[in-house]
Automatic annotation (TrEMBL):
Residue stretches making up the Vanillate O-demethylase oxygenase-like C-terminal catalytic domain: 94-269
Keyword Oxidoreductase set for record: yes
Gene3D superfamilies: Naphthalene 1,2-dioxygenase Alpha Subunit, Chain A, domain 1
InterPro entries in the record: Cholesterol_7-desaturase, VanA_C_cat
Keyword Nucleotidyltransferase included in the entry's annotation: no
Keywords: Oxidoreductase
Transmembrane regions: none
PANTHER family reported for this sequence: 3-KETOSTEROID-9-ALPHA-MONOOXYGENASE, OXYGENASE COMPONENT, IRON-SULFUR DOMAIN CONTAINING PROTEIN
Protein name stated in the entry: Phenylpropionate dioxygenase-like ring-hydroxylating dioxygenase large terminal subunit
Length: 280
């Protein structure tokens, strides 16, 4: 895959189901934009000067770019499997770097301490060995063979289980999590984090899910995921430095941080530096 600069990437800017002809005024990488439906009911986005921006609609969201994307939006094949419930969680504004938001999503070591008795609990705090790679053909960061004990791995879980995880970073401000599906062993629940960079130190986070869960009311699914992310928000908004350091000497990684190290290396390789700190 041929990569381009951050201005030429796709970014989520709203839920298609919630956009009207009146539209939504928002920001993308410091620039005002307007998201709306045109007279034909199709999604449209314009820059401050009225210039139309590229648009695609996928995963329930409207995506746009300030530049000219050289590739299609990344695919999540599992989304098209029959029987999955597609959950629009909404948006949470966070005073942090958009890159920090993604990195936090990749971190499992904080589960017992931030998401106590839900995604983790003491004394089950050890992060077992797992595999991290930058897949050259797809040009994506992947973490596989991740396992962690969780008291309530999903809203559909009825008790504690050891959960299998895979993490994928297909774009600089997006991450896809595949995890054990309690109602359907052998399948993966898909939980995504789509991040809209408003500024280098401010973002809108759009969680979205594709689940096998026929029983849980939609409101409960949304509330469960919002609860998880709101627990993360207080941590994100107090991280120092505010921007994500790409200098490997700025922060000392541990074994649990292998995915973060690969993510930062991948960002630096492609000069994805909006929201990053380059020097100490």
């Amino acid at each position: 895959m041929s990569r381009v600069g951050m201005r030429d990437e796709w970014y989520p800017v709203g839920l298609f189901s919630q956009i009207s002809e009146t539209g939504r005024d928002t920001m993308l990488m410091g620039e005002p934009i307007k998201v709306f439906r045109d007279a034909a009911g199709k999604a449209a986005v314009t820059a401050r000067d009225g210039r139309p921006l590229p648009v695609t609609v996928r995963y329930g969201h409207i995506w746009t770019s300030l530049g000219t994307p050289g590739h299609d939006l990344f695919a999540i094949p599992e989304v098209d499997q029959p029987g999955r419930r597609l959950v629009e969680v909404g948006v949470v504004r966070v005073r942090c770097s958009p890159l920090r938001a993604v990195e936090n999503f990749l971190d499992i070591a904080h589960f017992p301490f931030v998401h106590t008795d839900i995604l983790g609990s003491e004394p089950h705090t050890e992060v077992q060995n797992y595999k991290v790679e930058i897949r050259e053909e797809e040009d994506e960061v992947w973490a596989t063979q991740v396992q962690f004990y969780q008291p309530q791995a999903a809203k559909s879980a009825s008790g504690g289980i050891t959960t299998d995880y895979m993490y994928r970073v297909p774009a600089p401000t997006c991450s896809v999590l595949y995890k054990t599906c309690p109602p359907r062993p052998g399948e993966w629940d898909v939980i995504t984090l789509f991040v809209q960079p408003l500024a280098e130190d401010m973002c809108d986070v759009w969680p979205w899910m594709a689940l096998y869960d026929d029983d849980t009311p939609m409101t409960d699914l949304i509330h469960f995921q919002q609860t998880i992310f709101l627990q993360d928000r207080s941590i994100l908004e107090n991280q120092i430095p505010a921007l994500l350091p790409l200098d490997p000497g700025k922060e000392i990684p541990t074994r649990a941080d292998l995915t973060s190290v690969a993510y930062r290396r991948w960002l630096k390789r492609h000069n994805y530096i909006y929201g990053a700190q380059l020097v100490a």
